[in-house]
Amino acid sequence: MPGLIKNTEIFCVEDDTDFAFFMETAVLELKEVSTIQIIDNGNDALRILRVLATDKLKPRLILLDLNLPGISGIDILKAIRDIPFLRYVPVILFSTSDNPKDMERSLEFGANSYVTKPNSYVDLIVCLQSFSDFWLHQHANLN
User: Fold this and answer.
1) Which pTM value belongs to this model?
2) Any alpha helices (H) in the chain, and if so which ranges?
3) Is the pLDDT of residue 60 over 60?
4) Number of folded domains in the chain?
């Protein structure tokens, strides 16, 4: 369980340690993104998000895997939307599933987007740069 609770630009819930490593490495290659925090299970992620909300700290973007140990990405999404301080933080379901029902459920419960994880490291960098460009920069300027 993570010992350090910190504010971060991207808060990611990902249980695959290899993919988490690639995410952390890819973020280092992005323009204008400096921090990512990766939590490996749903229960810890929800606990940390509640502490962040209590401390009035909010990530700028939340990435959720769909299938997680402890609590699912959909259940975390529902909980986030019920926390007033975090309600409007952009949340992207970021999963290996390309099942249309998973996509529909994610959007139904308040995800801002649903993205299927890329298959290569280069595509992961492109994907994360896209998230950064839109959700951390363009979208942030709209609010």
Assistant:
1) 0.90
2) 17-28, 42-54, 73-81, 100-108, 121-131, 139-142
3) yes
4) 1
